[in-house]
Amino acid sequence: MFTLSNARLETLEGVARPSYDRSQVSVGIMHFGVGGFHRAHQAMYLDQLMNEGRALDWGICGVGVMPGDTRMKEALDAQDGLYTLVVKHADGGYDARVIGSIVDYMYAPSDPEAVIERMASEAIRIVSLTVTEGGYNLHHVTGEFNTAAPDIQHDLEPGATPKTTFGLVCEALRRRLERGLAPFTVMSCDNIQGNGDVARTMFTAFAELKAPEVARWMNETVCFPNSMVDRITPVTTDEDRQALEQRFGITDRWPVVCEPFTQWVLEDHFNQGRPPFDAVGVQVVDDVMPYELMKLRLLNASHQALTYFGYLAGYRYAHEVCQDPLFVEFLLDYMNEEATPTLSPVPGVDLEAYKHTLIERFANPEIRDTLARLCAESSDRIPKWLLPVVREQLECDGDIARSAAVVASWARYAEGVDEAGAPIDIVDRLKDDLMASAAKNRDDALSFLRNRDVFGDLIDEPRFVEAYLWALERLHTDGARATLDALQKR
C-alpha cells in the first residue's frame, strides 16, 4: 500500500498527483474549517491552478478551532497535508487525485498566539471560512450577533486569549492595523444567503464590542465577498478508505469523496488580489445573489424536503429517496410551484435543466449521502433555506403547501422515533428544546411551531398554520408516503 507523504509522492503511479514542487508553495490563505467540503472544493480549485504553474503563493494553512479538529490535524500532519479526492460517478466509475494545496495546519487552542501572528503577517491576503451555518453566531430571527455564547463572552473580556474564530480574526486585524499593514479579505464559503454580508455583519459586531477602532477600519477597508458554492460531499466512511486501498492501493487517513458536479460563483471583491480562480472554472461575477438564491432555495431546501419524509418512510440515503417516483414528483413540484417563483433570472443558467440535474445528482447511488447528515442541524438550515420561500410566497399569495409539509415532517422527525418505531438520533444544537416541543405534537399540534426563535411569526400566519396542521395530522395518522400522495392529489 502507498502511504501519502511528500517523500513518496514522486513514486505514486496510476493516480493524478501534484505536478508542482510543493516545497515552492507559500501560504497566502488561512482557512478556518478544514472539512470534507473545503477539501473537495476550494482546495481542489487551488490545486488545479498550481498544477498549471499558477498561484504557488496562494497555498492554504488550515486552522482548527473546535475540539474535533484535532483529528483533522493529526490526519493531515501524518500525510504532509496531502489527501486523496475521490469523485464518484453514477455508473460506478471512480476518479482519484491527490491534492497538495494545503501545506500547513494549525490547531488554534494549542497555540492561539501563533495562529494570530500568522494571520497578522503580510503574506496572508485571504482568510476563508467553511464554519457551517452555526459558526456565524447569529440569532435566526433578529439576525443580530449573539453575545450570550460563553466563548464569545470569554473573548470579549479585556486581555482574554481568543478562543473563537471571531476573536482570532479580529485580533489579527487589530495587529495589522497597528503595524500599518493592509487587511486581508475575509472570504466565506458557507451555504448562507449573502454569506459575505453575514460574515461582515458578525465579525464587525464582535469588533465593535471588543475594539471599536478595528471595527471602524473593517467597515472602511476589509472586503467580504459573497459566494455561492456547490458540491455534494458526504461524510467519509471506513468503506471509502477501504475502497481507496482496494482500487488504487493508497492508504489515506482521511480521503474525501464527492460527486462529479462542482460550482463556485464568487464576487470579485478582494483587498489584496486573489488567485486566478476564473482560469479553472470559477464564475467570478459582480453579483452573486441570483446564483446563491437558486442554490439555497432549489438544492439546499430540496435536501430538507426529501430528508425527513424519506427518513420517516424508512429510507436512509438520499439516492434511495430520489429513485422513488413519488418523492421525485414532490421535489419537482416544490421546486416548480414554490421555490422558482421566488427567484430572479439567473444569468447563464437554464433553471429547468438545473432542477432536473439536481434530481440526477441526488439520485447518484455512489455518493451514498446519508439522510442523517442532511437532517442534522435543521434549526440552522430550515430558517435560512426554506422559510424565506414560505415568507415570499405568503406575501404574494403563492403556494406554500409543500413547504408547510416539509416543516411538519421536521416536527414529526423531531419526535425521535420513525414510523417503524426505531429511535432517531437527533443532531441539532437545539436538540433538547426541539424534542421537548415535538413530544407534545399529538396533544398540542402547534407546539413545535411556537418556537419563535426558529420560526419567527409563522404561527401567526393562518394559511401556513392550516397547511402545516393538515400535513402533521396525516403524518401521524397515515405516514410519510400517504401524506405525500394525498398532498399531490390536493
TrEMBL record:
EC number: 1.1.1.-
InterPro entries: 6-PGluconate_DH-like_C_sf, 6PGD_dom2, Mannitol_DH, Mannitol_DH/Oxidoreductase, Mannitol_DH_C, Mannitol_DH_CS, Mannitol_DH_N, NAD(P)-bd_dom_sf
All copies of domain Mannitol dehydrogenase N-terminal, residue ranges: 28-277
Keyword Oxidoreductase: yes
EC class name: oxidoreductase
Pfam families: Mannitol_dh, Mannitol_dh_C
Keyword NAD recorded: yes
Keywords: NAD, Oxidoreductase
GO MF annotation, one: oxidoreductase activity
Residue ranges constituting the Mannitol dehydrogenase C-terminal domain according to the UniProt record: 287-475
PANTHER family reported for this sequence: MANNITOL DEHYDROGENASE 2-RELATED, MANNITOL DEHYDROGENASE DSF1-RELATED
Name recorded for this polypeptide: Mannitol dehydrogenase family protein
Lineage, opening ranks: Bacteria, Pseudomonadati, Pseudomonadota, Gammaproteobacteria, Oceanospirillales
